[in-house]
Amino acid sequence: MSSTSKVTKVEYYEFLGVTRDCSDQELKTAYRRLAMQFHPDRNPDNPQAEEKFKQASEAYQVLSDPQKRAAYDRYGHAGVSSAGGTGFEGFANTDVGDIFGDFFGEMFNMGGGRRNGRQQRGRDIRYDLSLEFEEAVFGKQTEIQIRRAEVCVDCRGSGAPPGRGPETCQQCAGRGQVRYQQGFFSIARTCPICNGAGQVITHPCLQCNGAGLTDRRHTISVSVPAGVEDGTRIRYQGEGDAGRSGGPKGDLYVVLSVKPHEFFERDGNDLYCVIFVSFPQLALGDEIQVPTLEGDTTLRIQEGTQTGKEYRLRGKGVPHLNEHGRGDLVVQVVVQTPKKFSKPQRELLRQLGETMHIENKPTSRSLLGKMKDLFS
Length: 376
Description:
Layout: H1 12-16, H2 24-38, H3 47-63, H4 66-75, H5 96-108, E1 125-131, H6 133-138, E2 140-151, E3 167-168, E4 177-182, E5 185-190, E6 199-200, E7 213-224, E8 233-236, E9 252-258, E10 265-267, E11 270-277, H7 279-284, E12 286-292, E13 295-301, E14 310-313, E15 329-335, H8 343-355, H9 365-375
Parallel strand pairs: 1-9, 11-15
Antiparallel strand pairs: 2-7, 3-6, 4-5, 8-9, 10-11, 12-13, 14-15
Helix pairs in contact: 2-3
C-alpha cells in the first residue's frame, strides 16, 4: 500500500513577514533577514533550516518579479506554478549570487564584486625608546630612525615597470572571483590566482620585485612629554608602513622604557626616598639637605621624631602628564646605628642610657603601626 504525501506550500507574504502592499525595499529587507538566519553555512547539517532557506528564496524570486507577483496576488500558487512550483523549477537557473552578493559578500565571501584593487592598510611599526629617569620626568625631544615600507618610486606602487601595467587575470577574466555551482545555487569565491584583484603582474618591477613597496630608512622627530611612565606608548598616525595599492598607511608606536633611578622610587606622580640620620638628629631635631630632581633642598626634622617618619615635600615630584601641577617627594628618615664606637662615645651613650627609662616590653606589629601613625 502506497501513500501520497501532500506538499504544503507556504504563503509567500506571510512566510516573509510582510504585507501584500509592501515595497520592494521592505521585501528585500525581509528576505535578507530570513536568508541570513537559515543560510546552510550558518546551519550545517540542519535540513529544516535548509528547507526554510529554499522557501524564503522561492518566495523572494516570485514576489520580486512584478509579473509573477501580480499573478501570485490574483491566483495564488497556481498562478506561478511554473516559476515557484514544488521546488525551484525556475529558480534553479537563476544566478543566486546576484541576489545574495550585496549582503553575503562579506560574511560568506559570496558575490559582492571584485575587491578594490587589493587595497590593504600598511602595517604598524613599533620602536622601543629607552629613557633616563629624569628624561621621563621632565620630557625629552629626540629623533629616531626607523625602517619602513614606502611606495616604490619606479613603479609608483603598481608592482609593474613603467609603461607595462598589470594584465587581466585569465582565471577570473578580470572579475576577481570565480563561481562554483553547489546544488541549486552558485557561489562566488575570491580568485586564487589574482587574490580578488582581477589583475596579475606578469613582468614585475625590478626595484620592488612586484611588491609595489620598498624598504627605506626614515627619521622621525619624537616629543616625549613630561611625566610619562615606563611602558607608555606614543602613537604617530600614518608613520608606519605604506599601504598596498593605495591603501592607508599604518601607524608608528614609540614604546617608552624608563631606566630606574639610583635612589628615587616612583609611584604615580609621587617620588619616594630614604634618608639615613643619627639618633641625636631625630631626638633633638635638625636641618638636613635632601636631594630632589632639581637639586638639594632643606628639610627640618622636628625634635623627638621617630625613625621611619615620612616628610612630604609638596610639588617636588613628577609633573602630571598633559596637565598642570606636580606630585610630591616623600622623604623617610631612618636612624642609622653605627657598628663601632670609640671609648668616649661609648661612655657618653652609657651615661645617656642611664638617664633614659624605656621598658623593653613586647608589642604586636599592628600596635606598632598604630603608634607610628600616632607619632606621624
